[in-house]
Amino acid sequence: MTSYKIERRAILLVAVFLVLAVPTLAFAVPGSGEFISNYAPGGRSVTELYNILAKICLAILLLVEGLLLVAIIKFRRKSADERPVQTHGNLKLEIGWTLAAAVVQVYIGVITINVMTEVEVIPEPENIGITVEAIAYQWGWQFRYPDYNGMLTDDLVVPAHTNVKLEITSRDVIHSIFIPELGVKMDAVPGRFNLWWFNADGPVNQVLAEGERASRVEKERKVTTRPDIVSFFNPRPDRDVTGLEDRVTYLAASRTVEDVSPYAKYDAVEYRGMCTEICGKGHYNMYFRTVAMTQTSFDQWVKDQQTGSTEADGGAIYQQKCASCHGADGAGVPGSFPPLVNVPWTNDDTMKDAHIEVVLKGSEASTLQGPTEVNGVVYNSVMQPWHDTMNDVEIAAVVNHERISWGNKGTEVSAEDVARVRASLGLPPFPAGGAEPIPESELLAEGENLYAACASCHGADGKAMNGVPSLAGNTTVLSDVKGTVASLVNGQDKEQWPGVKSPMGRSMTDRQLSALITYMRKSWGNEGGVVLPDEIQRLRNEVQK
After folding, report:
1. For residues 415 and 308, what is the distance between their CA atoms, to the nearest angstrom?
2. pTM surpassing 0.70?
């Protein structure tokens, strides 16, 4: 055998190895593996669709490659001077495979549209058990519960076997929410709400086969380690865990995960949730728990949340929200993010209020205007405000962690101190267990954007023409919030403008309606008050037809 033939065969073997090995290596990437949605009806439908498409693709691959191999072997040239028979097409054969391909495409289209309709069309309001706003930010998640007075949590907790409507948005850049076991995947875009819905199986799953349930229980008991190069060079002692860490095996090397889940006392099942849109340096750590509870446990959890926690783990909050910039040891990044060790904010008791203000307002704090010099180094970095993200107890906890850690000698602050500073800055109150405040300016800005779709009829200045009612000085807008909500969600069909007023508010979220109505009540000389989303939610339930 000549060296040329040996070289060609070696190249072929290497090519075959790479074709097989490269896709296999994907399973070593953190986050890869079992992303099959088996624990929600919509997710199971998507998984079944993927399986059907995979089988069709495999059948076509085997058919085409099989025919190709047969043709290569059967019709190969037998000698150097042989001239193959020239074939110029077969009409019946060509019509046959064209029709076959068309039938397959139509079938795929029909089953795909059926599944898309099932999982993407939001059920009617009377069939929605609970609505949750999923709010992404750099770099974490918050979940607001309009049905429970705007209650705010860091994890998505829902009752099992209940239709859950997600209203997904972002505070800053584009993110994407992903709950693989439940088949939830949707972009979070600033300034708009994208909608999704799901129904989680939870602790009592009557759909999965008994063997699959047993397999899942066994999986939750197995030892977990991080399956990537980080753990290879920095191994982490194996330990038996259950819950989220088992499902997100790479989470253990990213941040601390409790040996005992904070939801262990409830009858619940945890699923992993994450961001799947590159959104900055903290993207890798944007995980959250999705917890499906029995209705009894969920009711108890809501009661526990609304009671209001009097404690918060400042160290854990710091690691989740602050360490990505200021460092786990508070040393910061020279020239980019200032240190928190041995600086006046964290050591001088006369600067307690200034320290609280910095955490509340970020770069907008009075002490951070312009270049900031810390220990001889000038910093111009931007810090996000936390006043609308953390309540008074959480702010106090993280401030105290910074004031007594890493050798700092500052004295502690209380939640009452935070509430006092918050009020002095004109910020809305945010006590522990309370709803996240929505600043009036934020609602007005959102409402102005939404009103642009109304201006063509009602006028940019609220003074309409051609029989359309003006909104400036409108008594219904100013004094009848319920009537305004009814008009927006049900539309109007009066003699003056029959059929013209469509129910534009029906597809809006409670927050969007809140912003639009607040804008109308406080613009063009109107002097109405703010209408918050929880009030909209109550009125919508009363008036929607």
Report:
1. 12
2. no
